[in-house]
Structure formats: structure tokens, C-alpha cells
Design brief:
Length: about 240
């Protein structure tokens, strides 16, 4: 889709899906603001975007588990942009380990803070810029771990807790922001393969229903949703499990 003239903010853009989305948004003409916990990782992706498509991309350090860092990120974007058209809440710590004792208290706190509190604070501090857009979208990369009764992921219980909280926040946010014309779109993918969905050799057309979900397919869902007419409110994408 054409994102020319649109301002897009992506958290957790330093690698994987966030990086791929940033590159694709740049190719579509967006002005990008990307963040990662590591400032070097964020800058590397911003440089990649500029080299790949010539799109403007600004990089920021943002630790989603640190409220001051989230505020600083939003303040930095506010100093450079008069609005945000698309906010993608992609960043969140993944924690593996099926047993509750598999992680220490610091890792558990960080996982819940980055996935749950970080999403709430990011939307809060970017809300004035979202409201300044003529048609804003908030996109949340949640997880199938947030679906009731879905126990397929090997993630730690703290990750399940973080994603369940994120899903609950997205649900009420969608209801309360709809009268303002701000769409809240949440995706609930299972664990998917990253690969390199923007590599010229990546053949999406050859994939079948027996293949695992790919980052390219999730990326296409995001672009599809934000490309719909403004009377179309797609609240969520849920994916059939293997």
C-alpha cells in the first residue's frame, strides 16, 4: 500500500519483524520513527531504511520497561513531527521456560513491564500525536498466547500474562477511541518464522497451508488493515493453529 506522506512509529524495530516492517513501510513512502532498546540497533535499521528506499527514518532508544524512556521517545518524536498516523506496538520481551521457576524476578518483571505497561504508556504518550492525524491507526502485535485456552507456546507464564494484559488494553482502547476515528488493530499470531520476508528470493506464492506462518504474512496483514477505508474497523486478526 502507499504510505507516502504518512508518519509511522514502530517500537522494537531493531530486528526481526519490526525491522522488516520498517523496511517495507519505507519502501511504501512513509516517514519512519523507529525505536529499539539498543540505540545502535535502532540507528542501524534507520540507516538500512534510508539506503534501501531513500525514506526518512529517525532512530530512538526506547526501553519499554522504563517509563522515563518511553516518555523520552514520545517527546523526541513530538519535537520532529506534528502527528502520528500509524503507531505499531511491536516491542516486547519474549521469555522462554514453561515452569514459573525458569526465570528470576528481574526477568519476569521486565517481561510484563515491556509487553503490558510499555504498550499502555506508549499509546498514552503518543495519543496527542495520534489525535492530530486525520485518520490514525494503533497496531498491536499481541500473540496467540493471549487467546483463552491457547497453551501451545513454550513461552514463560510471565509472557502469557504480559500478552493477556496487552490484549485487554487493546480491547477497551478500541472501544473508547473509535468515536474519535482512531482504529485499534490487534494481531494474535502464533510463533512465526522470521526468515527475511523482504529478501528478493523470498517466494511467498509457493507457500502452502501446511507451512508455518511467516513474518511476511503477518506483515501483509498489518498493511492490509491500515490500508482499508476509514469506515472499516478491523479489530483483530486471529490465526488458525497448526
Amino acid at each position: 500500500m502507499d504510505l507516502t506522506g504518512r508518519t509511522v512509529v514502530i517500537t522494537g524495530a531493531g530486528r526481526g519483524f519490526g525491522r522488516a516492517l520498517a523496511l517495507q513501510a519505507g519502501r511504501s513512502g512513509a516517514h519512519l520513527f523507529v525505536s529499539a532498546r539498543s540505540p545502535a540497533a535502532a540507528q542501524t535499521v534507520a540507516d538500512e531504511v534510508a539506503a534501501d528506499s531513500g525514506a526518512k527514518a529517525d532512530a530512538f532508544a526506547c526501553d519499554l520497561a522504563d517509563p522515563a524512556s518511553v516518555r523520552a521517545f514520545a517527546d523526541g518524536v513530538t519535537a520532529r513531527a506534528d502527528r502520528v498516523d500509524v503507531l505499531v506496538n511491536n516491542g516486547a520481551r519474549y521469555l522462554v521456560g514453561p515452569d514459573l521457576l525458569d526465570a528470576d524476578d528481574v526477568a519476569i518483571t521486565d517481561t510484563i513491564a515491556s509487553g503490558a505497561t510499555g504498550t499502555v504508556l506508549t499509546v498514552k504518550h503518543f495519543l496527542p500525536l495520534l489525535r492530530a492525524s486525520v485518520g490514525a491507526d494503533v497496531v498491536n502485535l499481541v500473540s496467540s498466547a493471549a487467546e483463552t485456552g491457547n497453551h501451545r507456546s513454550p513461552a514463560h507464564p510471565a509472557f502469557y500474562a504480559a500478552k493477556a494484559a496487552q490484549a485487554g488494553f487493546a480491547d477497551i482502547l478500541s472501544h473508547r477511541l473509535r468515536p474519535e476515528g482512531i482504529r485499534v488493530i490487534s494481531l494474535y499470531p502464533p510463533d512465526f518464522t522470521d526468515g527475511d520476508p523482504l529478501h528478493p528470493g523470498w517466494d511467498q506464492a509457493s507457500r502452502t497451508g501446511s507451512d508455518p506462518l511467516t513474518a511476511r504474512s503477518v506483515l501483509d496483514c498489518v498493511l492490509f488493515a491500515i490500508g482499508q477505508p476509514r469506515d472499516c474497523f478491523i479489530r483483530s486478526f486471529h490465526f488458525e493453529q497448526m
